[in-house]
Amino acid sequence: MADVAKEAGVSHQTVSRVLNDHPNVRADTRARVEAAITRLGYRRNLVARALVTKRSRTLGVVSFDTTLYGPASTIYGIEQAARTAGYFVSIVSLKSIDADNVRDAIDYLAEQGVDGVVVVAPQRSAARALESLPAGLPAVAVEGTHRADVSVVCIDQMEGAKLATRHLLDQGHDTVWHVSGPHDWMETEGRLEGWRAALEEAGRPVPEPLAGDWSPRAGYEAGKSLAAMDGVTAVFAANDQMALGVLRALSEKGVRVPQQISVVGFDDIPESEFFSPPLTTVRQDFDVVGRHCIEVLLRQIDLGHAAYERLVVRPSFVVRSSTAPIR
């Protein structure tokens, strides 16, 4: 910085103000300093800066199975929001999620000196691991924990499932069958509860759900079972990939969608509008989730203590060609 100051003919403090985007720098002075930075190839030493400020400007993220659309999109939203706020992100992606693995990942990030962590914790086992967070480490959980001192940002899974189920009931279907996700996932639980609640509120029968694992294969197997049943006219799959499997199975069995059976998914993955037929689905706004996570985490970091917050993001509903009124 001293070399840049000498090259630009300004003080060390002026260079610091330019680097930190301080507003009280004249435009011509800023241009002169930036030109000197370019000529000298200057790069700030972030390690040295962290020693002085006691902040690494790095946030940790712990996640599981980033091949799935939800976790992958959540991480992307978090990373973009962090970058906008001037932070780097260090990500630990776990192959299997349990209390020990999550604790080890958080400890690893804490040893790196991250200023705070976001834990994408869609499973009960991950949420339980948050009970042993290092003292004083700012943290936010995506989807959930019941600890009173850990902030949570989540999407209203129950509301999304109600939107899907009510849409199908409004189309004149007597009831709605459900292909659920894995039992340990909180999204599974929320979507099951919302589906069941919508049917019960309407006074409709509640069929036994068909268990899945988020994969198209699971949806395909469920779809074959549904095609063999009498009276099935509407299906709500707990994610779009399983809905894709359902569509394939119904097509192979000669069942027309939506003329004979309407199908709704959940997530609104980019491919959903190109399914055959285009899929009606629940849209989750992962960019908003990421932005809220970073906002909540930075408030904790700036305050110097954990301030519990719970932010719930409402889903929206996208109607396409896979649903139609019952005939």
Automatic annotation (TrEMBL):
<dbReference type="GO" id="GO:0003677">
    <property type="term" value="F:DNA binding"/>
</dbReference>
<feature type="domain" description="HTH lacI-type">
    <location>
        <begin position="1"/>
        <end position="53"/>
    </location>
</feature>
<dbReference type="Pfam" id="PF00356">
    <property type="entry name" value="LacI"/>
</dbReference>
<dbReference type="InterPro" id="IPR046335">
    <property type="entry name" value="LacI/GalR-like_sensor"/>
</dbReference>
<keyword id="KW-0805">Transcription regulation</keyword>
<dbReference type="InterPro" id="IPR010982">
    <property type="entry name" value="Lambda_DNA-bd_dom_sf"/>
</dbReference>
<keyword id="KW-0804">Transcription</keyword>
<keyword id="KW-0238">DNA-binding</keyword>
<dbReference type="InterPro" id="IPR000843">
    <property type="entry name" value="HTH_LacI"/>
</dbReference>
<protein>
    <submittedName>
        <fullName>LacI family DNA-binding transcriptional regulator</fullName>
    </submittedName>
</protein>
<dbReference type="InterPro" id="IPR028082">
    <property type="entry name" value="Peripla_BP_I"/>
</dbReference>
<dbReference type="Pfam" id="PF13377">
    <property type="entry name" value="Peripla_BP_3"/>
</dbReference>
